[in-house]
Design goal:
44% of the residues lie in helices and 13% in strands. It is of the alpha+beta class. A hairpin with a 6-residue loop joins strand 2 and strand 3. Pfam families: Phage_portal.
Length: 409
């Protein structure tokens, strides 16, 4: 089934056709899931989907303060659909968005308040998107088990797409990896063929015979028929009229195939995954630095697309003017206690804001919302006054010490 059909047309979308070509099938159909047969793609997709699923989603105001919303937290972080957890829903949505370019879920709302209660997940193969003459988007979901179809406006559909050139449908990054995947598959097939029947490849000479093209072809076919059912290393039987010379195989070619990381690096680049996670050597950085860089610079490509779509479809019109939805990555990118303490001492944040940075609840003590300052610092225009005051304190302190000394005597 096609992802997108213009009104009055049944022609499948270009994404369906190209993804079919990449899988070796020239008939347009939904084949995105077949890309998981490639171990590098499976690993990269698992990493991205796992990270999106494990980081909780928070409702914040535009100053960064977390807004406590129990219903929204339950929907986005605990249970999103009627039969699976929020983690499973986010994982499946991400996998489909990467492999096919699009992922869809219908929003089930409270009939009285209009608030989102849960999501209903649909595969891309069960979804059709239509654009009307007034540029409205109509989503049609067809249940594969019951055959029942449901039409929804765009406002009632969660549609994740990480790359889009027309704002309507997404494009899978796998469409740009056709040559790389073919190169990798070709190298693996060469290795398989070598270990299966590499030692039996060679030259056959028929003694005292003058062979034309047809005779050579027949001799080769007879040899191949003789080898049917044999494996690499199986004995070959010849008579006195034949002479067999095995071909020497350049093992450097096999070494090049096994050591070639180009394809893996290209897959990591296209999917925005650090190469070291796919077994490619990384720069001279610690794993902690690489992890923070990945979460800070690469994952936002996915995070922003998801959080903006959720805010648009789940939050009300007035809520969107006051709040936003963000992924909570403090477990990886958060500051440590010493860094937060320095920010508090230097009046950059309040103690309560520091507690939020550490993932703890705000204190009810009103003093925790006040900026703290050290008495070791003073404004320049108050320097003389402060010194005079300190001098008086020192003199008083000295007098007190003298009094205590005389008392001891």
């Amino acid at each position: 089934m096609s992802f997108f059909q213009p009104l009055g047309s049944t022609k499948p979308s270009y994404d369906d056709y190209i993804s079919s070509v990449l899988s070796g099938n020239y008939s347009p159909e939904y084949t995105g899931i077949s890309a998981l047969k490639n171990s590098d793609i499976l690993t990269a997709v698992t990493i991205i989907a796992g990270d999106i699923a494990r980081f909780p989603l928070l409702k914040k105001d535009f100053t960064g303060n977390i807004e406590q919303d129990a219903d929204l937290n339950y929907l986005l972080n605990v249970k999103s659909t009627g039969n699976v957890s929020a983690r499973t829903w986010k994982f499946a949505m991400t996998v489909n968005a990467i492999l096919t370019g699009n992922s869809f879920s219908r929003i089930l709302r409270d009939p009285k308040t209009g608030k989102a209660l849960q999501f209903q997940f649909y595969r891309p193969s069960e979804t059709t998107v239509e654009e009307t003459n007034d540029h409205r988007l109509i989503y049609t979901f067809r249940d594969r088990l019951t055959g029942v179809s449901v039409k929804c406006d765009a406002s009632d559909v969660i549609h994740w797409k990480f790359f889009s050139h027309d704002t309507i449908l997404g494009r899978s990054p796998l469409l740009s990896l056709g040559s790389e995947i073919s190169l990798q598959d070709g190298g693996l097939n060469t290795l398989i063929k070598f270990f299966r029947d590499g030692f039996s490849s060679g030259i056959i000479k028929l003694k005292g015979a003058q062979l034309n093209g047809e005779a050579r072809k027949k001799a080769r076919m007879d040899f191949e028929k003789m080898r049917e059912g044999s494996t690499g290393g199986s004995p070959l039987v010849f008579d006195d009229t034949q002479e067999y010379t095995p071909l020497e195989i350049d093992t450097n070619v096999l070494q090049l195939i096994t050591s070639n990381n180009f394809t893996t690096a290209q897959i990591a680049k296209a999917l925005r995954v650090p190469s070291y996670k796919l077994g490619v050597n990384s720069p001279n950085q610690s794993v902690d630095q690489l992890a923070k860089d990945y979460v800070t610079n690469d994952l936002p490509f996915y995070f922003d697309a998801i959080s903006s779509e959720l805010a648009l479809k789940v939050l009300g019109d007035e809520e969107r003017k006051l709040f936003k939805i963000e992924f909570d990555t403090r477990s990886v990118t958060g500051r440590n206690v010493d860094e937060i303490t320095k920010l508090i001492i230097n009046q950059v944040i309040t103690p309560n804001e520091g507690r939020v940075e550490l993932g703890k609840e705000r204190s009810s003590d009103p003093n925790m919302d006040r900026y703290q300052s050290s008495l070791n610092y003073v404004f320049l225009d108050k320097k003389e006054e402060y010194q005079a005051m300190k001098g008086g304190e020192n003199e008083n302190g000295k007098e007190n010490q003298d009094e205590r000394a005389s008392d001891l005597e």
